[in-house]
Design brief:
This protein has 258 residues and is α+β, with helices and mostly antiparallel strands. It folds into 2 domains: 142 residues, 2-Layer Sandwich (Fructose-1,6-Bisphosphatase, Chain A, domain 1), CATH 3.30.540.10; 106 residues, D-Maltodextrin-Binding Protein, domain 2 (3-Layer(aba) Sandwich). It contains 6 helices and 15 strands. Helix 1 packs antiparallel against helix 2 and helix 5 packs parallel to helix 6. 45% of the residues are buried.
């Protein structure tokens, strides 16, 4: 594990601990909307606590990276690296007692395809996933890779879903949706699922903060992360940019779109 990844783990550990403590203390109050983020969306109390905890950890460890996050937007510290972060991916799950949410951290010299280090902590299970560019992907120190023909797809099927998502869901054997994009995509990386689909009727589904870390982990595990035109997914540091995402274990999985 590179020194930078070690620091990402420390950030995730500090933030995760604060999330768990706060959820226990606040109960239902964790879901209260208390502020607006940098781009106008409403933020819950636990979202704000998670982000504050992350910045506390950055100060504690003397890390001066730029930061790109939902609550504060882009924080320019004049560094060559930018930490693309979702300090609580799966906020609704956390707020309502569903044990599936993460801290997601990616360190990049640019946008999505420039991420060099990625770290995702499954908060309640205390499972760590990480990747370093061209060095593979790992789960708690063990190398992980995609697997073939798992007969499971993770597909977003809410009211914003494109009809194509429902068509694909009818073709495959098993379909799930869990509410944390970073952890759902990693299910492909560790060989649990064949694919994850986030396809909206109009516009795009996900922001870069949702998937920056998990994208590198999937790719380093041998999987593909594509846009809805089946090109290699690319995203900039721009909160107005949302994209549909197709994450699969291999090209053969794209047969379900035919």
């Amino acid at each position: 594990m590179h020194e930078i990844t070690t620091y990402l783990r420390k950030l995730a550990t500090h933030t995760s601990s604060r999330i768990i403590e706060s959820l226990e203390e606040l109960g239902a109050a964790a879901a209260e909307k208390v502020s607006k983020g940098a781009y106008g969306h409403l933020s819950s109390r636990i979202d704000v606590i998670a982000e504050d905890a992350l910045f506390e950890a950055l100060d504690t460890y003397g890390l001066s990276w730029n930061v790109f996050t939902e609550e504060r937007g882009f924080v320019d510290n004049g560094d060559e690296y930018t930490l693309i972060v979702d300090p609580l991916d799966g906020s609704y799950n956390a707020e309502h007692g569903i044990p599936f949410f993460s801290v997601s951290l990616a360190l990049s010299r640019g946008g999505l395809n420039d991420v060099e280090y990625a770290f995702v902590r499954n908060v309640l299970c205390k499972i760590d996933y990480w990747a370093e560019k061209e060095q593979g992907a790992y789960k708690n120190g063990t190398r992980i890779r995609v697997k073939d023909r798992r007969n499971l797809f993770v597909i977003y099927l809410g009211k914003k879903s494109h009809p194509r998502a429902f068509e694909i869901a009818r073709k495959v054997r098993r379909v799930r949706s869990f509410g944390s994009a970073s952890l759902e995509m990693i299910m492909v990386a560790e060989g649990i699922a064949d694919g994850c689909l986030y396809i909206f009727k109009s516009g795009g589904a996900l922001r870069i903060v949702d998937i920056a870390a998990s994208t590198l982990i999937v790719r380093e595990a041998g999987g593909l992360v594509l846009d809805d035109e089946f090109s290699n997914l690319s995203m900039n540091l721009d909160f107005k940019e949302r994209k549909n995402v197709i994450c699969v274990s291999g090209e053969h999985v794209l047969e379900v779109f035919e």
